[in-house]
Predict the structure.
Amino acid sequence: MVRVLAERRLKGAGNRSVTVNLAESPLAWLATRGRISDRQLLAGETLRADWERAGLAPSVTMRWEATPGGVKGGGLSPAPDPTTSQIDAKRRFDAAVAHVGTGLADVLWRVACAGEGLADTERALGWPARAGKLVLGFALDRLADFYRIR
């Protein structure tokens, strides 16, 4: 895993430097501070892996090669066929989200897949502070049950 570290200067009395790991996921941050269990962390990271393997993340829509898809004459090639692993990952992702339920899937997707912080998720969903941690815990427990993580 590549670690990206940055230093930030804090405003206030005196200068103090703080090292921040920008590559750390919100789930890893919660786990290192004892806010979620190892079982919950593994479930969330498994969902994120399925989301990434399925290719569900936003992507660049512009093709950068001179001749897209190697088609002679500069014509557009048909969309590539998804691989079997992509299809399986998409099925697992959809089934996992359905198992978790619509009320819990929002916070789960935002934190585990989109990498949004818990405070930002609570604000975006209009929840009171610290409510997201409880709801995320329920969602991760259901997710761990789906993936059969003990």
